[in-house]
Amino acid sequence: MSDQIVTRFAPSPTGYLHIGGARTALFNWLYARGRGGKFLLRIEDTDRARSSPEATEAILDGLRWLGLDWDGAPVSQHARAERHAEVAREMLDKGHAYRCYATAEEIAAWREANPNRPFPSPWRDRDDAPDAPFVIRLKAPREGDTTIADAVQGDVTVRNSQLDDMVLLRSDGSPTYMHAVVVDDHDMGVTHIIRGDDHLTNAARQAQIYDAMGWKRPVFAHIPLIHGTDGKKLSKRHGAVGLHEYAAMGYPAAAMRNYLARLGWAHGDDELFDDAQARQWFDLDGIGRAPARLDFKKLEHVSGWHIGRMDDVTLLTEIAAYLEASGAAPLTDAQTQTLRPVLSVLKEKAKTIPALLDQAHFALISRPVEVDEKAAKNLDTVSRGMLTQLTAAVQHANWSRDELEQAAKSVAESHGLGLGKIAAPLRAALAGKTSTPSVFDMMLALGRDEVLARLQDQAG
């Protein structure tokens, strides 16, 4: 038998990929990829009323954007219903399950009279088989305890007397989620189940199915949920909760991987790292037991670090992904050509892709440049006169940074002014804004013809 690590991510296709689900997928991906293992994907689409192909595709798109590749084709849980039923019938034949003919009304009456106590089916040890609808229940042990050796939470023990004989197959022959999950994980060869600790209460019940079938239990690792800044369970009131929202806000995928990895997991004091380091370092013993808190300031810091380290090709790919996610038009070839030379300057300070594009405004617009109200104040008669002088001074310049700076400085000094006094109107003429990169970086990126044309448009 192979010792290969196999993890899985098993979302329900009832909506977008939640940031908590994205982190769970990432932890599974890191654990498998860092050990040469497999990362599998299962779509838990048994809830036919709420599941949809569109939601499935949205989840797959989210994983693709995050950069998490999976092995093989995604498994549909719904498509495996016959296999789930087969295992339930096998348990029935072995005496580990039984037919229960109790009606919904009988069960409801019991629970009303005995709150917080498991339902003791009167059919557990009976052999008669009335001609009536029935469910198949697990014949769970009633004595002793069931203990989960959890890799994050430690040993978690539940008294068997607290657990009822859970339903494996409903009266219509369809499997329950709890049963289907175990069969699927076993058949897929999953060795490590890394999931949110909201599933911790399910683990003891699921372990009983493994034990009844004589299957080896996987390693369970239940990770704390993500909370908002106020310490409460993450919800829409805290801001973005869908992974697609973060893509649309302009956080690069690499930054999201780094940030999500640090939500509940630590490697010493390391906050900023690349994918190779994450795969090498990630281990279950680094996961804490306390809920992680979403922190947008920290996310911005991480995002800025990753943007600053990106090469031009990667950064342009991230820009394209952001524009698509936010519904904006893609860059034209001309815009990309103008943008590329200043990426090294723009990425030094940008925390997000839209912040970078805001600084890149000058490279993305076309003539005539629309000057905003604040920048227009720097275009008085004297300023326009200086722009006219500068146009003549740089017309035949070598178009190097040194020559452009010297020309601008000479024009300013001829008016008894410092270089900053010509930079403001020059900024307005080139970009139409007051907040831009260096005017000389803009001039070099735009090129001689475009700069001269923009200066002539504004010169007096």
Automatic annotation (TrEMBL):
<comment type="similarity">
    <text>Belongs to the class-I aminoacyl-tRNA synthetase family. Glutamate--tRNA ligase type 1 subfamily.</text>
</comment>
<feature type="binding site">
    <location>
        <position position="236"/>
    </location>
    <ligand>
        <name>ATP</name>
    </ligand>
</feature>
<feature type="domain" description="Glutamyl/glutaminyl-tRNA synthetase class Ib catalytic">
    <location>
        <begin position="4"/>
        <end position="300"/>
    </location>
</feature>
<comment type="subunit">
    <text>Monomer.</text>
</comment>
<feature type="short sequence motif" description="'HIGH' region">
    <location>
        <begin position="11"/>
        <end position="21"/>
    </location>
</feature>
<dbReference type="Pfam" id="PF00749">
    <property type="entry name" value="tRNA-synt_1c"/>
</dbReference>
<dbReference type="GO" id="GO:0008270">
    <property type="term" value="F:zinc ion binding"/>
</dbReference>
<dbReference type="InterPro" id="IPR008925">
    <property type="entry name" value="aa_tRNA-synth_I_cd-bd_sf"/>
</dbReference>
<dbReference type="GO" id="GO:0000049">
    <property type="term" value="F:tRNA binding"/>
</dbReference>
<dbReference type="GO" id="GO:0004818">
    <property type="term" value="F:glutamate-tRNA ligase activity"/>
</dbReference>
<dbReference type="Pfam" id="PF19269">
    <property type="entry name" value="Anticodon_2"/>
</dbReference>
<dbReference type="InterPro" id="IPR049940">
    <property type="entry name" value="GluQ/Sye"/>
</dbReference>
<dbReference type="InterPro" id="IPR004527">
    <property type="entry name" value="Glu-tRNA-ligase_bac/mito"/>
</dbReference>
<keyword id="KW-0963">Cytoplasm</keyword>
<dbReference type="GO" id="GO:0005524">
    <property type="term" value="F:ATP binding"/>
</dbReference>
<dbReference type="InterPro" id="IPR020751">
    <property type="entry name" value="aa-tRNA-synth_I_codon-bd_sub2"/>
</dbReference>
<dbReference type="InterPro" id="IPR033910">
    <property type="entry name" value="GluRS_core"/>
</dbReference>
<dbReference type="InterPro" id="IPR001412">
    <property type="entry name" value="aa-tRNA-synth_I_CS"/>
</dbReference>
<dbReference type="InterPro" id="IPR020058">
    <property type="entry name" value="Glu/Gln-tRNA-synth_Ib_cat-dom"/>
</dbReference>
<protein>
    <recommendedName>
        <fullName>Glutamate--tRNA ligase</fullName>
        <ecNumber>6.1.1.17</ecNumber>
    </recommendedName>
</protein>
<dbReference type="InterPro" id="IPR000924">
    <property type="entry name" value="Glu/Gln-tRNA-synth"/>
</dbReference>
<dbReference type="InterPro" id="IPR014729">
    <property type="entry name" value="Rossmann-like_a/b/a_fold"/>
</dbReference>
<keyword id="KW-0547">Nucleotide-binding</keyword>
<feature type="domain" description="Aminoacyl-tRNA synthetase class I anticodon-binding">
    <location>
        <begin position="328"/>
        <end position="457"/>
    </location>
</feature>
<comment type="function">
    <text>Catalyzes the attachment of glutamate to tRNA(Glu) in a two-step reaction: glutamate is first activated by ATP to form Glu-AMP and then transferred to the acceptor end of tRNA(Glu).</text>
</comment>
<dbReference type="GO" id="GO:0006424">
    <property type="term" value="P:glutamyl-tRNA aminoacylation"/>
</dbReference>
<dbReference type="InterPro" id="IPR045462">
    <property type="entry name" value="aa-tRNA-synth_I_cd-bd"/>
</dbReference>
<keyword id="KW-0030">Aminoacyl-tRNA synthetase</keyword>
<keyword id="KW-0436">Ligase</keyword>
<keyword id="KW-0648">Protein biosynthesis</keyword>
<feature type="short sequence motif" description="'KMSKS' region">
    <location>
        <begin position="233"/>
        <end position="237"/>
    </location>
</feature>
<keyword id="KW-0067">ATP-binding</keyword>
<dbReference type="GO" id="GO:0005829">
    <property type="term" value="C:cytosol"/>
</dbReference>
